[in-house]
């Protein structure tokens, strides 16, 4: 299929804009990177220049240091780089996440990065952007993936603690975005008690606070006597769920917050007793409803379950093509 925007190239290592020698979310160090958000499969270290939101630049600074030259992009601010106008819009994925609108030759291309459509007090809400070409993710691009509402999943946590007050619940949650979302969802549910966190979460929780996301009282597990954590909720990176570190906790009930918890085999592989289906990505209905809302002439599908979403588009007379980008990974989400 001939693509509408010939000035945008999809390469295995990322989306490339040859006229300005710039990449969107490249997998390797480049001279000029336009970055959608701070997750490691989108924001890598070693670039010479980076255009991103202030929050994403700060996240990259925490993770990689400040060796790159950062250009802060406010939402809805347009700059011109060579012959391409570039505007960043909220993506609703994590703090600072953005869609990137590219305009050239009267063609509008939106690279969505990762996005979700549900309200989340830790980041700006996704904003639909009219465009001719929409480059969409498809992480949960199968009809089986329909995420439940957040309050009902959070209620599983509080109910578990109420039922077994001599234990704690240990929640595996991705350090950037998911951990903070779980914390804020607990606060919204009226859970005002201290929450206990693994030390690996502290820097990013502090960064969220620096940008005005108030998380309530957080205490480090390493500084807390074991008995104090009975009846408490503890958060850690997914990799620490079954680590020796967890032995300092009072008989933990193991939970994990991820869209992948819809798949029972994944929960069993992680030895998860309490699966929490909480995703920072759009589910199948949100992916398809977004395409119907934006109504682009073409859809380019990046990572995830590309074929199913391409098929859905084609049955509705929407031109669609899978891009098969190589460097994206299934996040613990």
UniProtKB/TrEMBL annotation:
GO molecular function, one term: exonuclease activity
Protein name: Ligase-associated DNA damage response exonuclease
Catalytic EC class: hydrolase
Keyword annotations from UniProtKB, A to Z: Exonuclease, Hydrolase, Ligase, Nuclease
Annotated organism of origin: Flavisphingopyxis soli
EC number: 3.1.-.-
């Amino acid at each position: 299929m001939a693509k509408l925007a010939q000035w945008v190239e999809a390469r295995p290592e990322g989306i490339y804009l040859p006229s300005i020698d710039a990449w969107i979310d490249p997998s390797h160090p480049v001279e000029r990177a336009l970055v959608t958000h701070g997750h490691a499969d989108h924001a890598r270290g070693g670039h010479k220049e980076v255009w991103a939101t202030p929050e994403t630049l700060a996240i990259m600074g925490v993770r990689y240091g400040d060796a790159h030259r950062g250009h802060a992009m406010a939402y809805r601010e347009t700059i011109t780089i060579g012959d391409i106008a570039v505007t960043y819009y909220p993506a609703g994925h994590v703090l600072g996440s953005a869609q990137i609108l590219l305009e050239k030759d009267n063609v509008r291309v939106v690279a969505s990065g990762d996005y979700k459509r549900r309200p989340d007090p830790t980041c700006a809400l996704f904003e639909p952007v009219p465009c001719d070409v929409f480059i969409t993710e498809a992480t949960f691009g199968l009809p089986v993936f329909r995420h439940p509402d957040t309050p009902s999943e959070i209620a599983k946590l509080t109910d578990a603690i109420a039922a077994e007050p001599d234990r704690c619940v240990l929640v595996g949650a991705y350090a950037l975005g998911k951990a903070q979302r779980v914390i804020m969802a607990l606060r919204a549910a009226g859970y005002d008690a201290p929450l206990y966190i693994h030390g690996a979460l502290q820097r990013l929780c502090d960064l969220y606070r620096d940008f005005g996301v108030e998380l309530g009282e957080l205490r480090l597990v390493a500084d807390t006597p074991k008995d104090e954590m009975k009846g408490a909720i503890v958060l850690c990176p997914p990799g620490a769920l079954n680590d020796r570190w967890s032995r300092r906790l009072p008989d933990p009930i193991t939970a994990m917050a991820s869209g992948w918890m819809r798949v029972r085999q994944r929960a069993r592989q992680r030895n998860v007793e309490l699966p929490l289906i909480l995703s920072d990505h759009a589910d199948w209905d949100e992916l398809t409803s977004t395409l119907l809302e934006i109504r682009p002439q073409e859809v380019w599908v990046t990572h995830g379950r590309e074929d199913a979403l391409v098929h859905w588009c084609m049955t509705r007379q929407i031109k669609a093509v899978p891009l098969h980008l190589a460097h994206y990974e299934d996040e613990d989400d």
